[in-house]
Amino acid sequence: NAGVTQTPKFQVLKTGQSMTLQCAQDMNHEYMSWYRQDPGMGLRLIHYSVGAGITDQGEVPNGYNVSRSTTEDFPLRLLSAAPSQTSVYFCASSLGTKNTEAFFGQGTRLTVV
Amino acid sequence: DAKTTQPPSMDCAEGRAANLPCNHSTISGNEYVYWYRQIHSQGPQYIIHGLKNNETNEMASLIITEDRKSSTLILPHATLRDTAVYYCIVRVRTGNQFYFGTGTSLTVIP
Fold first, then answer.
1. Helix (H, G, I), strand (E, B) or coil at B67
2. Buried b (16+ CB within 10 A) or exposed e, A4-27
3. Interface residues of chain A, partner chain B, Cβ below 8 Å
4. d(CA B20, CA A113)
5. Which residue out of A35, A43, A93, A98 would a mutagenesis test of the B interface target, given it has the greatest number of B Cβ atoms within 10 Å?
6. What is the pLDDT of residues A89-109, one digit of tens each?
7. Rounded to 10 degrees, what is the CA torsion of A23, A95, A30, A4?
8. What's the CA gap between B71 and B50, in Å, rounded?
9. Cross-chain Cβ contact B43/A44 below 8 Å
């Protein structure tokens, strides 16, 4: 199993550009989520999904869209990038409604100039 | 989800036990205590979790007070590779969202 795979690892965007951060897991996990981590801070939840076709907002959802068309994939879309979205983005997945641990990807480092 | 309070930093001598405290005084009955760590800027790594009983695995032990308002993560024999930021998180049992604080930066000293 590859676990949770995020692509790309690094990205530089210009203000106003859009892009999609990819996240895929091969563990058949129902739950997936996206976090951002700013320097010196903990992770903050952006959006999450409890299964294919179901998504919901976390703490800091503004400026981001998500969809969950398959169990394996949970892409995060930046509609119009802003410098405030410069951050490291982490995707996580976990098995389901039972109390289980979450597995995190290695992150995407995004810089918006 | 309940908030947690952790000291911002701690040091520990290599080979000694590292005891990382966490206060979660507003925890409710159905919220679990989770511990994760983050080495450099890698993705967080699961360590251990518990509800009210003490727990132990190959990485660490988790001691939860009887009133559940605080807990301690114990790394029994800290190594240099345990240098990381450690996050204490409380989470509702049926939810799978984690709300991270700023954690404790543990430095293991040779």
1. coil
2. bebeeeebebeeeeeeebebbbee
3. 4, 31, 33, 35, 40-45, 48, 50, 58-59, 88, 90, 92, 94, 96-97, 99-107, 109
4. 38
5. A43
6. 999 998 865 567 889 999 999
7. 10
8. 10
9. no
Site of tokens 């003490």: B54
Q: Which residues of chain A have pLDDT under 70?
A: 1, 96-99
pLDDT digits (tens, 9 = 90+) for B51-103: 998 999 999 999 999 999 999 999 999 999 999 999 999 876 555 677 788 89
Sorted by sequence, the CB contacts under 8 Å of residue B66 that are 6+ apart come out as: none
Q: What angle do CA B45, B109, B70 make, to 5 degrees?
A: 50
Secondary structure, 3-state, chain A? CCCEEEECCEEEECCCCCEEEEEEECCCCCEEEEEEECCCCCEEEEEEEEECCEEEECCCCCCEEECCCCCCECCEEECCCCHHHCEEEEEEEECCCCCCCEEECCCEEEEEC
User: Residue for token digits 């106003």?
Assistant: A16
CB B84 within 8 A of CB B107: no
Residue with tokens 């309940």: B2
